Amino acid sequence: QVQLVESGGGLVQAGGSLRLSCAASGSFVSVNTMGWYRQAPGKQRELVALMSRSGTISYADFVKGRFTISRDNAKNTVYLQMNSLKPEDTAVYYCHANLLVALANFRNYWGQGTQVTVAS
Fold first, then answer.
1. pLDDT in tens, 56-114
2. Where are the beta strands (DSSP E) in the chain?
3. In this structure, are residues 79 and 20 in contact, taking their beta carbons and an 8 Å threshold?
């Protein structure tokens, strides 16, 4: 019933920029936290950036100063502006959302993933 649809991935050269977006749709009451994770081959999924509904933001140390997370609550959409991309940023980026689906019932959902490849 719930989908997180991602877009914006692609191939860029080192130093380039990409903007990812993720929109939540389906049957839910409201959106709590939204954020982005990434997973490189052979590695665990790791947090990139997280933003609460009230605006509290958490960034991984390796993206501070380069990436910016934002969200449009009216559109149930979260964005990740990625600047100064490095080859080590290459990974599949996954959108995550914690949704209130019923009274006192929060559930976690994941997007399908979008590939970000940064060429050296």
1. 999 999 998 999 999 999 999 999 999 999 999 999 999 999 999 999 999 999 999 99
2. 2-7, 10-13, 18-26, 30-39, 46-51, 57-59, 67-72, 77-82, 91-102, 105-110, 114-119
3. yes
Q: Are strands 10-13 and 114-119 parallel, antiparallel or unpaired?
A: parallel
Q: How far is CA 61 from CA 31, 46, 58, 66, 88, in A?
A: 25, 11, 9, 10, 13
Query: How far is the C-alpha of 71 from the C-alpha of 90, rounded, in Å?
Result: 23
pLDDT digits (tens, 9 = 90+) for 28-49: 999 999 999 999 999 999 999 9
Is residue 82 a contact partner of residue 17, using CB atoms and an 8 Å limit?
yes
Single-letter amino acid code for the residue at 103: L
Residue 80 pairs with which residues in a beta bridge?
Answer: 20, 69
Q: 73 vs 24, 76, 112, CA distance in Å?
A: 10, 5, 21
